[in-house]
Amino acid sequence: MNPVDQRRRDFLGKAAVAAGAMIAPGVILYDYAHAKAPGDPASPKVRWGMLIDTTKCASGCRDCVDACNRENGLPGSTRPTDSQWIRKVDLKDLKSGKAVSLPVMCQHCAEPPCVDVCPTGASFKREDGIVLVDRHTCIGCRYCMMACPYKARSFVHEPTTGQKPDVPRGKGCVESCTLCVHKVDRGGTPSCVEACAAAGHGAIVFGDLNDPASEISRRVRAATTTQLRADLRTDNGVRYQGL
Amino acid sequence: MSVAGILRAATAAALLLAGSAAGPLALASGPALDAARSGPCVEDPKLMRRSHPDFLKHGRDDTVRKGVRGIRHSLAACVDCHASKADGRVLGSERHFCQGCHTYAAVKVDCFDCHASTARPSATAAAAPASGGTR
Is A26 found in the same domain as A67? Predict the structure, then answer.
């Protein structure tokens, strides 16, 4: 952007603020909606999260997993050395017989153990709460994989081919769910959420947990939701309903 | 200056000499390269030949760590512009943009161990009507 455009943008921004104040005197406008332009850095006012309604998640359905593999260029096979960013987990309470099925991915903790243990600073949490691996700095020690209570991370054992332009990945690094950060940064939604909605399940809601007007915040307020292993007090960004 | 620094400076000097001769890229002394688009690069070509690794390193931290998208010096944007018209790639033979020049300069290019070496579909569509095979 050239300096003239920047000045014009600054001026228009201030003019809009001034106009807003005059139109609604006495009304306090809370700053909640934080739409991010692709060129802006991630905002600490945002906390991205997901709510997964396990009552709508069918055992054997892999729509979210397949969408994740397609979006991120993962091989999608389940050999012991293949990466898995989402796993479908089936649970059954032996006493009552109640069964649930749920996808488990990186829980995007507010206090991520993987970040605590990383010796190089490659494992990090963005300002908006998304936990990522900076592969430029990752040395492949896999300490974060040991530290993660959710087994969310995978190590790339073999040379990779067919990477997506937005999702670089290569041998010798640890990787995990990025919350489709390349789409979120451009105002999009993670692919698993889109696939689940497109298939008519609608079991996953994605949004800003810090925005009280967002659908995810309303749902979290209205229903009982749980964070996996809440006893560890990692304060996960991914929450589950009906567990 | 370290040994690596001296080598890099020598490489850049060699490339500058190659690029300063008149005419398109069919230089007897320089690499002959296919590239999809003609027109200006994001910086002066001489500066890019010498400093593109530094630009990319600055940009990658902004994108990975801060989430800034669409930066001026992005590797994906390099590939979009410089991918060969024939197969949409920057690697594969010594006529491909990245591989050709790096082979000529005897510098290993390891970006594409992880990054895609193909242009994004949107860029391929935009590049189709472009003419000219120079950088």
Answer: no
Per-domain residue ranges for chain B? 3-127
Predicted TM-score of the model (pTM):
0.80
Query: Given CB atoms, is B114 within the 8 Å cutoff of chain A?
Result: yes
Please report the pLDDT score of residue A64 as a whole number.
97
Smallest CA–CA distance, residue B116 to chain A, in Å, is 5
pLDDT band of A9, cuts 50, 70, 90: confident
Query: What is the rounded average pLDDT of the residues A177-187?
Result: 95
> A158 at the B interface (CB within 8 A)?
no
Q: Are residues A1 and A117 in the same domain?
A: no
Q: What is the residue range of A5's domain? A: 1-30
The answer to whether the Cβ–Cβ distance between A181 and B67 falls below 8 Å is yes
| Complex prediction ipTM | 0.79
Residue A21 and residue A98 in one domain? no
Residue B9 scores a pLDDT above 60:
no
Q: For B125-128, which contacts have Cβ atoms below 8 Å and span 24 or more sequence positions? A: B127/B36, B127/B37, B127/B80, B127/B81, B127/B83, B127/B85
Q: Which distant-in-sequence residues (6+ apart) come within 8 Å of A165 by Cβ?
A: B76, B79, B115, B116, B118, B119, B120
